[in-house]
Amino acid sequence: MKKLHFITLLLTLTLVLSACGTSDEGKDGNAGGEGEKVYKVGVDTTYPPFEFKKDGEYKGIDIELINAIAENQGFEIELSSMDFGGIIPAMQAGELDIAIAGMSITDKRKKVVDFSDPYFEAGLSLVVKGGNTDIKTINDLKGKTVAVKKGTTGATFAQENAKEKGFEVVQFNDSPAMFQEVANGNADALIEDYPVIAYAIAQKELGLEIVGDRLNGDQYGIAVLKGENQDLLEKINKGLKELKENGKYDEILKTYLGE
Ligand code: GLN
């Protein structure tokens, strides 16, 4: 009995010590050394210009940004694509270390994740089928159906306003499915982040139109699991700051958004 306790204690100690060892190596900046931790990064590849796949390759502002931060700070990452609504749960289950997914910094999310300094100004827009003249603001949604994407700030905004404004909310797993629903007339409107819908409309004939001003303003941040990854968060913030200072951040934005 006693012996077993001792072995358990020894094992625990070994584990604790080796865990410390890994993070110390990180601090020394031994980038790419053998046995170096590879941080798993959750992304939402239905979200151009922030994240998408082209010819099987990851592209977009978020992808280039996290790669540049990792390179600048000397850590390794591995990308993992999933529906936006699955990202925070995957983090909580220990399957992801980092999330960069056009994710808005919100007080609700701050209860479960720690956010980096903001890296992009966004905010929500109301969107209708091209040529729809009935809906000019969210006050014109009585009896209408509004499409949103699961787990997003757009979904929360819709749910908070549905009762008062008298509309119904339908949820989708990804942005293209939600766009399609309004384009083909199954839903009357949708709520999406302004930079994403503006980019999508500029890129191709979606048959959609943004109405009015942005519904709110928010900022994107990079998330790590709350209280678990302070070293990593510090590196992310440091990397972000350096990329802003050395022009790389502007260069990445320019690649996708133009001047
Ligand atoms: N910015 C929105 C949010 O944080 C949408 C993000 C997304 O759909 N990838 O909820």
Account of the protein in words:
- With 259 residues, the chain is α/β, with parallel strands linked by helices.
- It contains 9 helices and 15 strands.
- The chain folds into 2 domains: 38-121 and 219-257, D-Maltodextrin-Binding Protein, domain 2, CATH 3.40.190; 124-211, Periplasmic binding protein-like II (D-Maltodextrin-Binding Protein, domain 2), CATH 3.40.190.
- It has helices at residues 2-28, 61-73, 84-92, 107-110, 153-165, 175-183, 194-203, 230-245, 248-257, and strands at 38-43, 46-47, 51-54, 57-59, 76-81, 98-99, 113-115, 120-121, 124-129, 145-149, 168-172, 189-193, 208-211, 219-220, 223-225.
- 43% of the residues lie in helices and 22% in strands.
- A 5-stranded mixed sheet has the order 5-1-6-15-7, sandwiched between helices.
- Glutamine is lined by residues 44, 47, 84, 101-104, 122, 149, 152-153, 193.
- Quick one: CATH class of the largest domain? Alpha Beta
Query: What ligand molecules are bound, each kind once?
Result: glutamine
CATH superfamily of the largest domain: Periplasmic binding protein-like II
Residues in helices, as a percent range: 40-55%
CATH topology value of the largest domain? D-Maltodextrin-Binding Protein, domain 2
Regions with little confidence, pLDDT below 50 for 5+ residues: 6-32
Order of adjacent strands in the largest pleated sheet: 5-1-6-15-7
The tally of structural domains comes to: 2
For the report, how would you describe the main beta sheet?
5 strands, mixed
Strand content: 15-25%
Alpha-carbon distance between the termini?
70 Å
The count of helical stretches stands at 9
What's the overall average pLDDT, rounded? 90
CATH architecture of the largest domain: 3-Layer(aba) Sandwich
Radius of gyration from the alpha-carbon trace, in angstroms: 21 Å
Count every beta strand, where a strand is a DSSP E run of 2 or more residues. Answer: 15
By oligomeric state, this entry counts as single chain
Order of helices and strands: HEEEEHEHEHEEEEHEHEHEEEHH
Q: By helix and strand content, what is the structural category?
A: alpha/beta
